[in-house]
Amino acid sequence: MKYLDEFRDPDLAKRLFDEIHAITTRHWALMEVCGGQTHSIIRNGIDKLLPDKIELIHGPGCPVCVTPLEVIDKALAIAAHPNVIFCSFGDMLRVPGSGQDLFSIKSQGGDVRIVYSPLDAVKLARENPSKEVVFFGIGFETTAPANAMAVFQAKQQGLMNFSMLVSHVLVPPAIEAIMASPTNRVQAFLAAGHVCSVMGYWEYEPIAERYHVPIVVTGFEPLDVLEGIRRTVMQLEAGRAEVENAYPRAVQRQGNIPAQTILKQVFEVGERKWRGIGNIPNSGWHLRGEFRQFDAAAKFAVEDIQTQESPLCHSGEVLQGLIKPNQCPAFGKECTPRKPLGATMVSNEGACAAYYQYGRFVSLESITS
Amino acid sequence: MCLGVPGKVLETYKLHETLMGKVDFGGIIKEVCLAYVPDIQVGEYTIIHVGFAITRLDEQSAQETLALFRETGLLEEELLAADDHAAASETQPS
Ligand code: SF4
User: Fewer CB near the terminus (10 Å): N or C of chain B?
Assistant: First the structure.
């Protein structure tokens, strides 16, 4: 167990692994829905140290990965406008659209900037009144309060030269969609800790009951992930299906109420397309009517852009746990982090990139079908 | 971008009617928005995601997480990406 040395507290890690080994009697398929957790699992070899009977499926937990290709093409079209300062989190810049990526727009003279906080983009709008400043507002519930505040402040300050390309996704409807799918193999979920810091976990309670599926709120440090897995397996082995909080130091049942208040003011729930999965009802946030003037897709008339995915890419099956990244024929061949074909290879939170980075190659012969 | 990084609140103030503050992430100091943890006091710890405090955290957990982030290089990756890039692009002719 050479990997154990790399845990912050190897003794605690060993105890958790031992307990998981001791309680596991059957095959169980668990899904994590958090790119940070996926990364932790692969980097620390958690999946290799678990009992063979426990299978971890890497779900749609990376916001960069689930952002549809056409949204990226819309971003590229907006960023190429001569009068636009296009602001984004750094990890969106390398995501290829159908032709190019934001980096190439930048190298062709486009004003594309990486910002740390969406409020940096609001500041740029204030300082550059003759420019249009557009922020690429993607992410899960963790990021949404920041983006909501940016729009809220722009409205308060009357910054009509600020707008946002919004592609926000919500986790609970995605979990429901996975459970409702006829090909579903998932028997329990690790819910993403920081998503629940914002939204709480009460929304998961009816899902756990309806689908009889354990959902354990889990942090993303290696020991947190282990504890989440231990609690999940305990529930599965006991036939329980409850929502449990294994990350109480950062999560309360009701979530962050001030954040939820602004979210409700700025966004409303609606259908959203997830890359690799398709449309999921009520799984996204859109700007409310009062904030429509900050909608970059409408402002720059890019709403009708439609895009085709690469036929070689199986990221949809990866995201739904139907195949592992190294079972995709293009993995490590046509598709690498330097030349990604699909978004699960682009972000280092994506399952394909995590497998590539930590050398999880298997020969094609060993793939069972 | 999904990560949240713990930090210690050094100072709080209002900017454009919003509660903001300076937060120390184990030596790296940044301005963050504290509007979602309105009761936070100087000296307390919070988890910051894309420049926004999303929840409080006790000091011990915060220190442990920061140490782990530093070891794995995640701290710099998460906090300095924008600045590094800005610095890099300034040195390039545009
Ligand atoms: S390896 Fe590349 S092509 Fe294959 S599923 Fe992953 S992202 Fe798509």
Answer: C
Model confidence at A54: pLDDT above 50: yes
Output the pLDDT for position A307.
Answer: 84
Tell which residue, B3, B8, B5, has the closest CA to residue B45: B8
Instruction: Supply the residue whose CA is at minimum distance from atom 7 of ligand 1.
Output: A342
Q: Which CATH number is B30's domain given?
A: 2.30.30.140
Instruction: Encode pLDDT of A321-330 as tens digits.
Output: 889 999 999 9
pLDDT at B87: 41
Mutate to test the pocket of ligand 1, among A344, A346, A349 (most ligand atoms within 8 A of CB): A344
Query: What backbone phi and psi angles, to 5 degrees, belong to A362?
Result: -125, 155
Pocket test of ligand 1: the residue of A58, A64, A315 to mutate, having most ligand atoms within 8 Å of its CB, is A315
Instruction: From the CA of A315, give the closest atom in ligand 1.
Output: 5
CA of A362 to the centre of ligand 1 (A): 14
- Has residue A99 got a pLDDT over 70? yes
**pLDDT tens digits, A26-41:** 999 999 998 889 888 9
> Domains in chain A, ordered, with CATH?
1-308 (3.40.50.11740), 315-368 (no CATH)
Ligand 1 neighbours (beta carbon < 6 A)? A 312-315, 318, 325, 328, 330-331, 335, 341-342, 344-345, 352
3-state secondary structure A124-151: HHHHCCCCEEEEEEEECCCCHHHHHHHH
| Residue scoring higher pLDDT (B37 or A90) | B37
Task: Say how many Å lie between the CA of residue A354 and the centre of ligand 1.
Answer: 12
